[in-house]
Structure formats: structure tokens, C-alpha cells
Amino acid sequence: MSDDESLEEGVTNPDTDLVPPLLLEYMPWHKPRKQFVRGKQWIHHSRSRVEDLQCRGYFQGNVPLKYLTLPGPDLIDIRLMIDLCAEMGVKLHYTGFCTDTDNQQIRLRQNISQFRASNNDVVAPGSDVHKVALQGIVHMGSSAHNELLKGGPYQIVNIDACTPLLTGDVDATGRLIDAVKFIIEFQVNSEAVPWILLLTTPLQRENITDGFLDRLNAQIKENYNASEDFAKKLKESFEDGEELDAFLARMSAEHGCNFLNIATLGISKWLVHLGEAGNCRVKKLNGFCYSTFGEHPLLPNMISVCYLFEKQERALNDRSGITRNIENQINLPNQDDHIRALNKSFDMTNVDQLLKNDHALYETMIVETMRLLSDIGYDVEQEGKSYREWISQDITHDFVHNLGNEISIQNDGKN
Q1: What's the CA gap between 365 and 360, in Å, rounded?
Q2: Residues 144-194: pLDDT tens digits?
Q3: Which pTM was predicted?
Q4: In terms of C-beta distances under 8 Å and separation of at least 24 residues, what long-range contacts does 48-55 make, across chains too?
Q5: Angle, CA 255 vertex, CA 250 and CA 258 arms, to 5°
Q6: Which of 15, 290, 377, 412 is positioned for an S-S bond with 20, CB 3.0–4.6 A?
Q7: Integer Cα distance of 61 and 353 in angstroms
Q8: Are 188 and 281 spatial neighbours (Cβ–Cβ below 8 Å)?
Q9: pLDDT of 224-264, one tens digit each?
């Protein structure tokens, strides 16, 4: 492996490396809404996975929880996973892929060194963040491919991506969706232990080709034509006299919630069908959305969704006629998973709206974020550059006024 492929390379004495990182500028993932998603989705479902695996005796013999991630330079999600594992008495083995700028890489190396020094009782040997794009895992023998296989299989996969999942034609290279499929293929071929896929990605109509959208909608049509129950449930969203094709065309052409709902449903159908091909049930869990636009109207264009993959028992269909096949044991698609995917895709929580309507919750997220950033090395109380002053310029939260004894949040038109 070359010196620039592993971010651990070049890290020297931990005692001398434990210095505050440079260029600590606040970034979009430092907003209170992101902390809400981390806690209510990432950590919530990760805790459930750990509890389930503990009941199964999975961690006997000091077996670690294996975590795949795309961390930012602050490694916030890894820090939270370390805290969770420490609380629950299990070790954590993480494999990360990160391709940030050089200045951010310096911070990343410092954070890795600090983790090794202060969390060696929780972090399992071999945990690392690699300076290589996740998309490279599809190339056999590449550094990314080898590191993915070496670190897995995983119980938690967290794809927190700024890159759109649905972009490029099927023949294009470097697509995130191809990497996601490869991970699923690797997982279902590796072990039967249930695992979760956390997926955060922007969804905007203008970034998705018509051909890509047609293929997603074809996943929905397949279930609509195969299941009366699914069709009946989907029709609840139709306008009077509307047929399926017209419904899909209308939803696909709109911006905001309608487009997010139908695109998320298409993604969910794709994942459920992939799971069925690998003899897995795929259950869609709770999902969130929010806006990354810098001006009103703040239509949601980012989703954060979660899926549970479980191996299912497979009945053997004896086509010879020598033994009797019991009809309800033959492997049929589980329509409950498809209807669940529909319900969950159309019932995502808009985090911007939620925090707008709950000032106490918003303040709680601010306090949690400030505490987390302070632990990392940010001076959240720095005069003229405090965290609260930064968040006051966020157009997403211009509706909040006079939280506690703090400054009034006003809309100054900045993102």
C-alpha cells in the first residue's frame, strides 16, 4: 500500500500528535439537524443491532462490532460509535474511506492518532480510515477492494455521501450506486448475521437521467402488477381517476417531498429486490429528509434512510416429484417488506420542519452539537466566531428566536 492510501501512515508519536486540529471551520454536517439524524437514526438503530447481536452471543470471545463508514475529517460518526460500544461493553472495528482535501487530511491523521491513544480499550486492532474513494471497491485487486474485504463482513454500513446515489447511466464508471450494490453482494455472500445499511444521499430531479428514473419506476410497477395489496396501498396516493403511469409521471416531475417519496420508494424497491435475489429480507426502517438549498422555499432534497438485511430460511423446491412440496414453504417474495417499504418511503420525517415546530428539541440539538464539537477541538464559544453565531446565519433555522438566553436567530439570507 502506498503512503497516501492509508491515513495512518506518517502518524508518529501519539503524545506529540495530540494537538488541536487546524482550520476548524464549521461545515454543513455540524448543523443541529445532522446531530438529530445521528442520534435518532444512526445510533438508535446501531444500538438495536448491538443489543440483538449480544442476545445471539455474537460478541463472545471479544469479537468486535464491524463498522463500514465514509467519515468526514472530524470522524464524528466513529466517535459516537466508540461511545456506544464503550457503553455496551463491546469492541469496535471500523473501516473508513475518505477523500477530503489535504488540510482536512492533516486533521484526519491527528484524529486517528488520538483515537488510538485514548480508545485502545474499545477500538479493535486493524481499524483504519483509508485515503481512497469508496467507488473503487468494484475494481478487483484495487486498494479499496482489498480494504473492504479485509475489514468485513460488517454489521453496520453507513454510507453518508454528498455524492448523489442516482447519477450517471448504467455504463458510467465511478457511480456510488455500483459501490452500494457491491457492498450488498459482499455482505449477503459473507454471513447470515443481520446487518443494517444507513444511506444518506441527495435526491434532485435535475441530477437524475430519465433512463435512471424509468428503471426505478419499473421496480415500483413490478410490485404494483404482482401484488393486489401493494397496488391497493399505492392507489391511496393517486389523484381521482389517475392511473399508475400518470401517477409516476406526476410524482417524478415535482420537486420536494413528492419526488423524494417516489425516488426513495424506487430505491427501496431496488434494495428489496436485490435482497430477495440473495435470499434476504430487506426491511425499510425510519427515514428522514431535509433541505440543502440556500434560499426559500426550502424543499427537502436530502434523504437519510435505513434498511435491515436478514437472511431468510430457504425452502427446497423438489421439482422431481419424489418428495412433496408444501406450497406455503416455496420461496415467494415477502409482500410485507414491499408494503413496509412503501409506507416508510412516503412517511419520512422532514427534520427542518420538525425542529421548526419544536424549539426545545432544536435547542437540545444545539447543545449536543456544541458539546461534541468542543470535545473534538472546536472553540464553540470563540468571540465573533462562536457556534451559535454561525448557526444564526443558517437560513434553514431563521424561524428560531430567543432560545433560552441566547441570541435571536434572524434570516440574513445566508446558507
Answers
A1: 9
A2: 999 999 999 999 999 999 888 887 776 677 889 999 999 999 999 987 679
A3: 0.86
A4: 49/155, 49/156, 49/194, 49/195, 49/196, 50/84, 50/85, 50/88, 50/90, 51/88, 52/194, 53/155, 53/193, 54/88, 54/90
A5: 60
A6: 377
A7: 45
A8: no
A9: 998 999 999 999 999 999 999 999 999 998 888 999 999 99
